[in-house]
Specification:
This protein has 188 residues and is an alpha/beta fold. It contains four helices and nine strands. The longest helix has 24 residues.
Length: 188
């Protein structure tokens, strides 16, 4: 009888420790695209994005008021950030423009009219409830047309009490806002 009780307690402790050691992954759901934007290209390839080291990690980072970046190996993005953000950008731009937009590698036989490259210098959620990004985009035109580039700096508020799920929702909105900004300013 005592052995059964000890065995049950031991099993309970093992299950509790296993639960403490497990990680949780958070997917970014794309918010609805509610506006249409006209662009000057029929087909655009979104190249692989360039992220800061912390932002390309599987771990979800937050920034403290003193600038310290904090993460936990138990709180992860559900997809590799560089791949996911390139896909989010291409899907958002495709939805808002109705044009043939795809992330790298280009899946069509005919070459795209333009290539979009995005380099992030910052992409982080603050503990105070702002998800911020800044960086630069580049539009290469294959037929010798006018190439362009521009800087961006955007932010989206979120409720920090919502934890990683709120951060994931804010990132989705931030990347949609960035796609809209680039479509209006870089792809016309």
């Amino acid at each position: 009888m005592m052995t059964d009780v000890l065995r049950a307690i031991a099993c309970g402790l093992v299950l509790a420790l296993a639960a403490c050691g497990s990680s949780q992954s958070y997917a970014v759901r794309a918010p609805a695209v509610t506006e249409q934007v006209r662009i000057g290209f029929g087909a655009v390839e979104v190249r692989d994005v360039s992220l800061p080291t912390y932002a390309s990690s599987d771990e979800i980072y937050t920034q403290a008021a003193d600038g310290t970046l904090l993460s936990s190996s138990k709180v992860l993005w559900a997809d590799a950030p560089e791949r996911a953000i390139a896909l989010e950008l291409s899907e958002n731009i495709a939805r808002m423009t109705g044009r043939r937009i795809a992330s790298e590698p280009w899946p069509f036989e005919a070459y795209p009219d333009a290539r979009l490259e995005v380099r992030f210098s910052e992409l982080v959620a603050s503990e105070a409830g702002q998800f911020r990004t800044k960086g630069q985009y580049f539009v290469g035109v294959l037929d010798g047309g006018r190439e362009r580039s521009g800087l961006f700096e955007l932010s989206v508020p979120f409720d920090p009490r919502g934890g990683p799920a709120a951060i994931a929702a804010a990132r989705g909105q931030l990347i949609l806002n960035l796609a809209t900004y680039i479509a209006r300013n870089g792809l016309r």
